[in-house]
Specification:
Layout lengths: L1 H4 L4 H12 L3 H48 L14
Pfam families: DUF6216
Keywords: Membrane, Transmembrane, Transmembrane helix
């Protein structure tokens, strides 16, 4: 019944059913998925470290441009004198 309701051919259906009946499939899938997760974690940490460096570099550039613009502005009034020379 499952073969009739799916888009798989009869040959594909028999291969898939035989694969799922195999007792060595579960340990194989568990091992390969574990290996893939370990590899993904290593790659994800590597990319995160790289992109954190790039992000902080861009952030430093944006903050330095803001500071440069503030330094280029002329003060609207003289700063207050905090100490009097009496």
């Amino acid at each position: 019944m499952a073969a009739i309701s799916s888009e798989f051919s009869q040959a594909d259906t028999s291969i898939i059913c035989k694969l799922f009946k195999d007792k060595s499939l579960a340990p194989y899938v568990i091992k390969t998925v574990r290996d893939q997760r370990i590899t993904f974690a290593f790659i994800a940490v590597s990319f995160a470290w790289y992109f954190w460096g790039v992000f902080s570099w861009f952030l430093q550039g944006a903050k330095s441009r803001e500071m440069f613009k503030r330094l280029q502005k002329k003060p609207e009034q003289e700063p207050l004198e905090l100490v009097s020379n009496n």
